[in-house]
Amino acid sequence: MRRRRHTEEPENHERWLVSYADFITLLFAFFVVMYSISSINEGKYKVVSQALLGVFNDPERAMRAIPIGEEQPLSIKPAEPLIKDSEQTDAGLGQTSADPLQTISDDVRSAFGDLISSNQMTVRGNELWVEVELNSALLFGSGDAMPSDAAFAIIEKVANILKPFANPVHVEGFTDNLPIRTAQYPTNWELSASRAASIVRLLAMNGVNPGRMASVGYGEYQPVASNDTAEGRARNRRVVLVISRNLEVRRSLTATGSANATPDAAMRRAGTQSAPPSAVAAGGG
What we know:
Elements: H1 16-38, H2 42-57, H3 59-63, H4 85-91, H5 100-111, H6 113-117, E1 121-125, E2 129-135, H7 136-139, H8 149-162, E3 169-174, H9 188-205, E4 213-217, H10 230-236, E5 238-244, H11 247-256, H12 263-270
Parallel strand pairs: 3-4
Antiparallel strand pairs: 1-2, 2-5, 3-5
Helix pairs in contact: 5-8, 8-9, 11-12
Keywords: Cell membrane, Cell projection, Cilium, Flagellum, Membrane, Transmembrane, Transmembrane helix
Membrane topology: Single-pass membrane protein
InterPro entries: Bact_OuterMem_StrucFunc, MotB-like_N_dom, OmpA-like, OmpA-like_sf
């Protein structure tokens, strides 16, 4: 009986492709993980960078011990009125030779003409305060209070305009009525207040005296447009910087918000006499 010859199977010369494909897959996964680890939030990086520069450039501050918890200021000296009572009586609030509110208004209009013309910023005012209203989309991402890269450049320019003056600055945050429920922002109250506080912090980082400033969040409860449309909700998502003539005016605005305040009512709360309107006329983009 003849023995059956064993047939040899042909050798597969392409088995290396399986190992090569596995290697490429693992290499791709490695680089994806490395990229995700290396990406950082630009806004947080700039906040930390500015804070470190402030510490190391200030010898007195660098020598002090690092406090545990939040360091509370011992006292805050109220801002003094920019115009004396005698000057108000003789010439009126808006008739001084160098009105700080008029100067601030003019400087803001000159620096941000492009934003005003595109309706992303509005500048308006009267004899007691100037309002600089910014669309929240310019400063923050959706549902977030961390300033964007554009916010750093915008607020730096605003701070350079405000630094030479002693006027109080009242920063107000507003949202639309769409509900938000996150661990960080349970409601629109927290979101609007955090956004206002972020702008105050940026102003202080760029040299504006913190004792001049205050922040407040109004949530969704002071809309300037209907929340029934996307355009109206976009208008309601805003941050307003109110530069007041003196500290009493700012305190009178805190109770009602600048959206509901009138010059006559503010003057009554501040205990001042009615004065003729200044050259800071309502208007802007």
